[in-house]
Every structure is written in C-alpha cells, then in structure tokens.
Amino acid sequence: MLKAGVLGAGHLGKIHLKLLQQSDKYELVGFYDANQDAAKEIEKEFGYTSFPTMEALIDACDMVDVVTPTIYHFECAEKVIKAGKHLFIEKPITHTVAEADIIRDLAKEYKVRGQVGQVERFNPAFMAVKDMIGNPMFIEAHRLSEFNPRGTDVSVVLDLMIHDIDAILSIVKSKVKHVYASGVSVISDTPDIANARIEFENGCVANLTASRISMKKMRKARFFQKDAYISVDFLEKKCEVVKMKDAPEKPDDFAMILTNAEGVKKQIYFDNPEVESNNAILDELNSFAEAIKNDRVPEVSLTQGAEALRVAMLIIENFKII
C-alpha cells in the first residue's frame, strides 16, 4: 500500500481524507493544513494525524494529495516533486500556465507520477459512452450551479467550465484553432457566467456555457458526430445514444424512419448504455495508485492538466466582459 497524505483539509480535503482512509490501495498517514487551529479540530473530530509542517507530511508519504486553494498549488507541488514523491493535485493544476509547465517538467526530471483531479473523467455516465464518441464535429456543454462563495476565488471558467474543457480535450483528437468567449460579472470580481466557442483544426466546434449563479443545477454535454448523437448528464449520471443507420428494406411497424430529399432512408436507434454506480473521487485516487504501481501514464496526466488550463486561460484572455 502507498503511504498517502493530504495537503489542505478544507471541504474537499476532508472528502479526500475520508476516501483515502477507505481505499485498499493507500495507507493514510495524515494531513497538513496551514490553519493549525482548524487542523487540531479535524484531528480531534476524525482521528486523522495532523502534521506540524508541510515538509514533515511530505517526508512521511509515498504520494501526496494537494487539495489546497489553487494559488498554493505550485508551491506545494514543487515541494512534493522535489522530495521525490508522487503527486495528485486538484484542478486546476496551477494558477498559471507557466507554473503548470514547470510542474509537468519537474515530474519528468524527478521521475515521479502526477495526476490532476479532473473528477468528471470518472463520472460513470461519461465512462459508459466515451468509447462510443469517435469523431464529434459539434459539442455543446452546460454546467450551471447555484451560488457558493467557496469557488469565487477564481473565474467561473477555472471553477466550473474547466471540467468540460478537460472532458472535451480528452475526446477531440485535434489542436485548438480559435477561441471566442464572453463573460458576465454579476456578484464576483471575475465572471460568474461565461460562454466559450472553441474551434479545432479538424473542424470540430465546442460551445460551452458555465454559470455559478443559476437557480438550478445542470451538468450536461451533447456530442454530435456522423450518424450519432450522444448525450451525457453528469449530474444525474445518465446517458443516451441515438444512432442512425441505413434503413432495412422491410422495417418493422414501430421503426422510426427518416427520408431525406434524395430519398435515402435512415432508421433511428435508441440506446441507453448501462451506467455503473461509483464514487468518482475514490476511483480517480485509486486509478492513480494503479498508475504508480504499474509505472504507466495516469488517466489525467500533468500534461493534460496543463493543456486544460492553457485552453481555460485562452478563454479568459479572450473574454468580452459584459
């Protein structure tokens, strides 16, 4: 078992502590939080071992899970890697693209593994259909959330939209060509509502919308490709696949047939792939343990995390603020 520790014991850090303790792939050695008063309370309430310094925790671990505010990611990650320890780091990977590139290169230099916590990659609805998404040419994603002050230290792009950016980049095997974006600041200093249009070199277009001041939650993505439409509901963990194939000569009475202007007939087929229940955060942590054990590239590598951040920053830089 890998000895694991957590840097940062806020809301998400507590979840990671709980799941690392439950995992059969890790031995949780403890955590470090800069707020020592809060750390003592957590230690007393949950029984986790609180370390007096970041360095002391890192020294005691094989893998360190960084769940601090984003602005501290680079400082923590650099210390973890230079200590020769494997790094799991929450999204976004760092505060700037330059920092992300340094972390990626340091991991190669010190020969350690690194994974970014893009949890939607492990959403069971997405996992159920990702192999069916072949060459999408249009993608639409909506990620709407009710207001929560906890995420307003960063733009809604880095807080919410980056989930869909990462998922889309993992599907579309082409470089980004153009980015167009607009944002609205309603309650925060940075945009709370954002829309982005990403155009890829292969002709694919992705239209992404994110909001953190909505009245209801929504996390949906739709992928359109030749002869198929695939929808993913990340929130409800549901998915649907609609395929079109050449209609048989003698379709049954209940078949849905479409005929185009040239007289070509297509039959519509509906499929609801089985979605297996899981704990996505536990799965991403366990998958990292497997990557370390088998010396393979993690599911969401530091390179992929850096690329998702690069595209997110392109969106922010191209904002037309309303």
Automatic annotation (TrEMBL):
Name of the molecule in the record: Gfo/Idh/MocA family protein
Originating species: Jejudonia soesokkakensis
One Pfam family per UniProt: GFO_IDH_MocA
GFO/IDH/MocA-like oxidoreductase domain span: 134-217
Domain of life: Bacteria
Domain Gfo/Idh/MocA-like oxidoreductase N-terminal: 3-117
